[in-house]
Amino acid sequence: MRLLSFFTDRNYRKSLRTSIVAIYLIIVAGAVVRMTGSGMGCPDWPKCFGYWIPPTQQHEIEFSPNTPYKKGMVIIHNEELRVAKANFQTGDSYQEKNWEAYTKHDYNVFNVYHTWTEYINRLIGALGGLVVLIMCVFSLKYARSRPKITILSVVTLLAMLIQAVIGKIVVDTNLSPVLITIHMIVALLIVGLLIYLLHAVQPADLRYSSNTRFVNFSLLLIVLTLIQVAMGTQVRQYIDDQVDLFGYPLQSDWLENGPIIFYIHRSFSILLVGLHAWFIYKGIKTFKHPNWAYVSLAIMMVLTILSGILMNYAEFPFGSQASHLVIASLILGVQFYLWMRLRVAQSATVS
Q: Which of 34-48, 149-163, 218-232, 327-341 is the least confident region?
């Protein structure tokens, strides 16, 4: 009976909120990894240089005589990654028969800062998976009364597993840009699922009112923001290509002769600001909605525009790209939540 007392609506909602926070932390961690160029800090997966806790010094991944090695442990030898074939102890010199080449990619650099940045990113991802698993367990409360809740909770957990597999493939392909984008899209889909579930089990808010036109307008904002994010990923890919060619620090003049998608992305942001301004004004003044969501949406719109301006005119200051991406994902989350609450408000207003 005491165990059953934990399976309550309140605890499920708490687990959903915690899961949403955890996924956004994963998005932040992923943005930091990409911002610092640490994606290959751990060249293998799920371990890091063959360790569950990665090395902290270069000599730890170099050949060491008279040292025990376990199967799967990785060293850098002659600028190549070599993997121990089995458990064995080395002699005085390197013996090729004990090792095999790591064939999934040819990245062979050790940088302790990159390694631990990527490792922390993976730890946060694992923590997020655990939180979603707990949420999924709490959802069993609804297995009979509202099976859709339980099913979608399980789908969210499966999406987390798929996300982990995509993360492995991203490493195996030496940071394929297409897969990095897919990785981000899946994270946003998971956030969307969690926000939907939170909305589905939230008590009705009678303060809301709406109409069909306003609901449809809020959906239009989501679609336009998704288009803007998609264009942003293309701009980011161009910047990544420039980094590969010229290295850091980033230079704003790289975009002077950039792809046409950059200019569309920049101009489209002006349209989005105007549409959001009208949406926020209408929601607060006309429909008398609670201010927190609209005010937070306004603040995030200002911040994302500022971060874009900084990137374009201030030589890409440290953290501007990561904050731009994270804020955009937060905007999508708030937009989706508002749209669902507005749909409920519309039904209540009509009835």
A: 34-48
Which class for 26: exposed (0-12), middle (13-18), buried (19 or more C-beta within 10 A)?
buried
| H or E element in which residue 311 lies | helix 291-313
- Residues 6 or more apart whose Cβ sits within 8 Å of residue 53: none
Q: Is pLDDT above 70 for 351?
A: no
At 108-144, the pLDDT tens digits run 888 899 999 999 999 999 999 999 999 999 999 998 9
pLDDT digits (tens, 9 = 90+) for 74-103: 999 888 899 999 999 998 889 989 999 888
CA distance 284 to 179: 40
Distance from CA of residue 211 to its chain's centroid?
33
**Residue with token string 């694992």:** 126
| Cβ–Cβ < 8 Å for 63, 88 | no
Give the phi and the psi of residue 196 in degrees, each rounded to 5. -60, -45
pLDDT bracket for residue 223 (50, 70, 90): very high
Contacts of 78 (CB under 8 A, 6+ apart): none
Crossing angle of helices 112-138 and 147-172, in 10° steps, is: 160
Q: Where are the domains of the chain?
A: 1-41+111-203, 58-101, 207-351
Angle of the 177-201 helix axis to the 320-350 helix axis, nearest 10: 30
Q: The whole model's pTM is what? A: 0.85
Q: Indicate the burial class of 339 (C-beta count within 10 angstroms; 0-12, 13-18, 19 or more).
A: buried
Q: Which fold has domain 58-101?
A: Seminal Fluid Protein  PDC-109 (Domain B) (2.10.10)
**Count of alpha carbons within 13 Å of 153, Cβ hemisphere only?**
27
Largest CA distance in the chain: 83
> For residues 26 and 124, is the Cβ–Cβ distance under 8 A?
yes
Which H helix or E strand runs over 100? strand 99-101
Contact 272, 224 (CB under 8 A): yes
